[in-house]
Amino acid sequence: MRSWRRWLTRLGVFGTILLLAGCGRDDVSALQPKGPAADDARFLIVLTSGVMILVLLVVFVLYTYALIRFRWKGQKEYPKQVEGNMKLEILWTVIPFILLIIIGTPTLVYTFKLDRDHTNDPETLKVKVTAHQFWWEFEYPDYKLKTAQEVVIPVGKKVAFQLESADVIHSFWVPSLGGKKDANPGLTQTLTLQADEPGVYQGQCAELCGLSHANMYFRVKAVSQEEFDRWVADMQRPPQVALSDKAKQGEQIFKQSCLVCHAAYVTDDATGQMKLSGGSAGPSLVNVADRETIAGILLNRAHGEADVDPAKVRENLTVWLKDPQSVKPGNLMPNVQNVEGSKMEYTVAGGPLSDEQLEALVEFLMAQKQQ
């Protein structure tokens, strides 16, 4: 009885582990392909897994049969000893060779297919990707615009991602669209992907790159060509939201303290018109209040909701500005207030920002949107 209980316990533990192994998210699964490259990757996963399972079953059946059929039954004589069998030697050499051909041939074909450079194809959208610790910069050279953390692409169109790094080695990976390639300092590599269905696909860094490697997410938004054209037009024009008095106060703080690293639309002192200005050391903040995340990790909408929630945007901006290290440890963004226990402090002219100044800065960033 105890023996059966022991085996039932082991079976229960094994079953639980097996069930937990199936837990995951559809938007970060290579088994939920949404593009040609992902389809090829899934085919290879299924093929290699199928071959390995077949080999495992054959070996297990033969081993079990030999264990039962030829088990020791108290005989005093040794069975006949066999030193070699040419037929068996040929058999278990040829079969693995055939299996390697079955696995290796499509693997080579799909690998070279994925490595094909479509940059010079006039129908291909080109996106320059620069990886930073711990965020992603996306530049559309044909449209002369930059954004961060979220890249928008049209459905059904090849996109040539030109990958490089500003610091250490990173790896660009969108599981649902397939393919993974390193982003290296001083070296540009191209990865061509395509989304067959509209949706938001999670991407992440797949190369250990520092303290917040696990938080280095980005999103790929696949939309119709009409929506993509509308998004490009929105990115190329100033925000359509009028600045309140508090936002104007925040704009002055932004100009004094943030503009050296971040690009945004600010009021030109000479003309009074909004113009794109700022540095590129940090992420571009153009239309930041329209994004689905802050810093690529703080979600700007309720779970299950499709639209960005302004209240969540305001909350997330405040959390991020107060203490970025609590969200992404090791990143280079300084605090705007002195936070007890934080590993980084930041001082503006006259000292750290007061709560009122922080609210004003958040109000200005909330106006960086089109609607």
TrEMBL record:
Gene Ontology cellular component terms for the protein in this record: plasma membrane
The UniProt record lists the keyword Lipid biosynthesis: no
Stretch forming the signal peptide: none
Main location (coarse class): membrane
One of the GO biological process terms: ATP synthesis coupled electron transport
Keyword set, alphabetical order: Copper, Electron transport, Heme, Iron, Membrane, Metal-binding, Respiratory chain, Translocase, Transmembrane, Transmembrane helix, Transport
Boundaries of every Cytochrome c domain copy: 245-369
Record keyword Ion transport present: no
Molecular function in Gene Ontology: copper ion binding; cytochrome-c oxidase activity; heme binding; oxidoreductase activity
Cofactor list: Cu cation
Catalytic class of the enzyme: translocase
Residue spans crossing the bilayer: 41-68, 89-112
Occurrences of domain Cytochrome oxidase subunit II copper A binding (ranges): 122-234
EC id: 7.1.1.9
Domain Cytochrome oxidase subunit II transmembrane region profile: 22-118
Record's cofactor remark: Binds a copper A center.
Cited CDD domains: CuRO_CcO_Caa3_II
Family matches, as Pfam families: COX2, COX2_TM, Cytochrom_C
Compartment list: Cell membrane; Membrane
UniProt similarity note: Belongs to the cytochrome c oxidase subunit 2 family.
Record PANTHER family: CYTOCHROME C OXIDASE SUBUNIT 2, CYTOCHROME C OXIDASE, SUBUNIT II
Name assigned to this protein: Cytochrome c oxidase subunit 2
Organism expressing this protein natively: Candidatus Reconcilbacillus cellulovorans
Lineage of the organism: Bacteria, Bacillati, Bacillota, Bacilli, Bacillales
